[in-house]
Amino acid sequence: VGRRCVVILGEKPPVQDESKNDANDDVTQEELTRRVVENVVQAALRQRALVTYANLAVRKSAKAEMRQWLMAYVDAGIQDGGDGVAAWKHLKYSLLIALDEPRQLERIVRKWIQTDEYVTTWRRLLARLASERGDIDEAIVLFETIEKDSQLAPSDYKALANWYLARDHKEKFRRAQVEALKAAQEYQLSNFVSQRRYRWERTHEPLPSELDERVLFAFQALFEKSNNPGNYLHGLRAFYRACRDFRLLRMIPDSIVGRTPQQVYSFLGQLRTTALAEMRKEATADEILARIDQLRQRDLTTIDLRALDLLEALIERQSAEVLNQPGPHVQASVVALKRAFDREWANGEGRQMAQFLDSLGHLKQPELAAEQFRQLEALHRREEPGTDDRLFTGWYLANPMFNPYGKHTEGLERMEIVIREYEQTHPEGWPSHANVPLGGYVQMLERVNRHAEAEAFVKKHLERPLNTGQRNWLMERLTTVYASALEAGTRVSLGENEELYQNLIPFIVKHAERGDDNHRYRVLQGLRSVFRTAKRKSFPTLRKDMRQYAFVTLPEFLKRQRNNYRAMVDQTANLLAELLDSRIGLEFLIERIENYPRRFYFTWENPWNQFGHRLGDWRKNVGNNLGDLEPRLLAIVLAELRRDLETRNQHSRYLYRKNSYFWTDKEAAFAKAAEEVLEKRRDSARYVQYIAEYFWGGLAHRNRAIEIMFVALKDDLLDDNGRARLVDWLHHPNVKRYAESVAILEGLIERNAINMHYRCELITAYHQTARGEQRSDLMKETIELFRQGGRWNESNLSQLARCVHDNSLHQRTIALVGELIPMHQRSHPTRGIGEGSLSTYYLWLADAHSSLKHTQQAVDAASAAIVSWGPRHDQRRHTIERLDTITKTADDLDDYVALIDKQAEETGQDSSIIRRSIGKAYAGRNEHDKAIAQLRISIELQPGDLDTHRLLLASYDALEDNAGAVRQLLDLIDIDRHTLSHYVDLEQRLRDDDDQAERAATAVVEAAPTEAEHHEKLAIIRGRKKQYTAAVLHWQQVARLRSLEPNGLINLAKAQMLADQPKAAQKTIDRLQKAEWPSRFESNVRNSLNELNRLRQTP
């Protein structure tokens, strides 16, 4: 083979001569194509020969001459240069690795690094080679060089992280881990974090012992990678609530460095109400502040330094509000705010800073509040009057005055000045981009119930809107002013209270007639709050007004509505059901569906798709009180049913299919409608079958479905698939009309002679109709036919075997499965063991033998099914259950036991599983002495089978043999020393013997001295015996081993009180109060502290 490869390859790699292709310009296209194909084939042949020769040359048994020739050939390829030189170098690299020549490999790679133009690949390979030789430092230097060119892949960063870890470069290790994760998509990192969080939030499982460090890296990667890092602060807060690991918050300072001003202020604004809201320990704050100080040592931009200053201010502010000694934190927060303010400002940054100061909300400490307003005042004064920045900084100054500080008069006065100043510089009208301060001012007037002034202000601007969009917005804002006045009970030009209510509805309706669809939609939404207020104030005309709007006014608007049509109907229907009752909501939906635009019927917005479930739900709520709605609703449902049947395209079959929404009283109407469609489509095979399927599955009218199919069969409308479907229905367990299927199946087989499925169904029909001779003839014919032409394969044989098994033809089953099993074993790897099908075949064989009372053969087959069972757990459980059923129903079980006893004595072989199954069978017959004998043999064969030990223990208990049960429990403990329940059971069984019970109790902890559960159980035992001092020792261990869970401290405090240790109990309670517990324990800790305080006060 090697010599043949050499002949193909030649002495050295061929060099492509392009001049030959250009020399003969007069070559025909056919000749050129032939040459190209020939070159491609020759190149592929040479490549195959080279790979083959290389495989031979690198083997240990290869001669040195082969290796020398191969290396010389590869070197020739490298020396020839050209485009393929890189490939030849990679091949040489691979060959040297295969030949285990690390020194030569290193020399060559270093040479290539010096001579090649692109050396990143060789540096990467040399670095990995250096790491394998143990030269970690050189590997790190090489990868850091590659990193400067931004050429490291995620896998490279992972390797670099491991090297840093080996050299104890912790900071660089973390950075490399983060860089490796940044290659993933944001959603992937977010999903990774969420999956890890669930482990901490599962309430009925112990907490993990520590936070997975990869979570920290993933969060850091998210914050650095995302353009909107604030989006992930809620996830960070949730994770911190779950585990209270300060490292999650310690990474926050890194997340705001290197950001734009827009990103910084957005991030800080979200941070205050998310992650920082969970910070309750001074140690956590100190860790974050320490990290801020470390970052300040870097060469940072002004915005980075200001961001760190503002973050420091937030942390100190939070510390001042949650800790007992706020003084130093208040001063530190003020200093940080001043430091941030004194730095150089970028254009437009003052407005962002003002928004941040506004977002701080109510600062409880006067010094902080004073600095907040000092900076807001200064920022406002800096801006030029009449500019947008001046307007917005003024708004951010007035807004906190008004709320949350509650200085309503000062805030309004300030805002009036700001608004008036902006109006003077914009006489042409108020621009839409400044609507936030305008709307905020109107809201202030609403909050102090000065709705008339708010109305006048909005109307003034309505007189000169800049454009139609602004006019629409102002009109929508005026509508909310009136709705707010109605809620507050104040007077406006439309009146007050009920008078305002009566005037407001026509006002909204009138203005909804103007503008486009979106404006109309938003204006009419104002009616929702109006009607809700009327409901709360019990206005007597609410029902009439809502009906007028829903059934008279809204339909007129809907006729013109192109957008938001579905939303308007949906919201109105829900409002009617919410404020009035489900029947009116149902009535509205019925009327709207009756008048629904046809254009929506062919989109996802078609009425049945959107409202069918609500029709079903509300009809169910209304019950039999539909009244005149009943025929109208029925017409809608029947129309959808007809559409379904006539188009053979179902949406959701609410009301007319048997489910939780099914309209039972109209079952006959649904059947009649289906019959009418059937009558029209009787000549169409597809329609007939579709309608029959509705009768079968939708109405469960199985006999009618079969009848329809028989009529179609008589009219020759059914193809073979349709006939097969009819057979399936006839053979259904709830139908069993086998005789009627015979003729159909005979016809199917006549046309499809080699279809095994049809033959199996006919065998079943013959068997179920007591046509034994025809069944036998068909069976014989089938076997003879399929043994010919290579059709006697596993697929066909398994179908036939299943058929005879399901029909309880036991002898036939034994014969066919006897052929099927060897066939399967021959055609599958590992002889079919572990795949699942073989196990099923053995179970069929076991069933047949068991039914024939062949206990030995049945047990052997069931045992083989266990040996060959598949990977699915449910199949394994079923297999063991079948063995248990066989032994349980065996009439000759004693004889079988005698037989396997004799075989075991003669051969020395036995089966633990069989013995255990026999033991269970005897136990089920209350023959526990025999059960114990078999189970003990099973344990001798497989001492580690815990289920057998438990069965044996149950038999001793059934015989009331406590001594035997204790001995068995001790045997179980010997092989399963870490299961707590065994020791608890032993202690309970030995309670009558104090010495033995004490020994059993101490064994609870001796079995697992570092497991909290064992100390907890012994503490409970000590408490039950009123040995409270001893219980204290074990609750201390629980609190130490499960430091993230409060249960140990709670019970320790209780035990200390009962042990008359009040000072120790108080210290424990203090620890419980000061600790920062994961969120899942907060309510438990709060309730437990209340209980402990009550116990402490009880004499």
Brief account:
73% of the residues lie in helices and 0% in strands. It has 1099 residues and is mainly alpha-helical.
What's the arrangement of secondary structure elements?
Layout: H1 2-9, H2 18-23, H3 29-57, H4 64-79, H5 85-98, H6 102-115, H7 120-132, H8 136-148, H9 154-166, H10 170-181, H11 186-201, H12 213-225, H13 233-243, H14 247-250, H15 252-255, H16 261-273, H17 282-296, H18 302-322, H19 327-342, H20 349-359, H21 366-382, H22 388-402, H23 408-425, H24 435-447, H25 451-462, H26 468-488, H27 497-512, H28 517-536, H29 542-560, H30 565-579, H31 582-594, H32 607-622, H33 629-647, H34 667-680, H35 685-698, H36 702-714, H37 720-730, H38 738-751, H39 756-768, H40 772-786, H41 794-806, H42 810-827, H43 837-851, H44 855-867, H45 873-889, H46 893-907, H47 912-924, H48 928-941, H49 946-958, H50 962-975, H51 980-989, H52 994-1006, H53 1012-1024, H54 1028-1041, H55 1047-1058, H56 1062-1074, H57 1082-1097
Helix pairs in contact: 1-3, 3-4, 4-5, 6-7, 7-8, 8-9, 9-10, 10-12, 11-12, 11-13, 16-18, 16-20, 17-18, 18-19, 19-21, 20-21, 20-22, 21-22, 22-23, 22-24, 23-24, 24-25, 24-26, 25-26, 26-27, 26-28, 27-28, 28-29, 28-30, 29-31, 30-31, 31-32, 31-33, 33-34, 34-35, 35-36, 36-37, 37-38, 38-39, 39-40, ...
Explain this structure.
It is a single chain. Among the domains are: 82 residues; 134 residues; 89 residues, Serine Threonine Protein Phosphatase 5, Tetratricopeptide repeat (Alpha Horseshoe), CATH 1.25.40. 73% of the residues lie in helices and 0% in strands. The protein contains 57 helices and no strands. α33 runs parallel beside α34, α41 runs antiparallel to α42 and α51 packs antiparallel against α52. The mean pLDDT is 91.
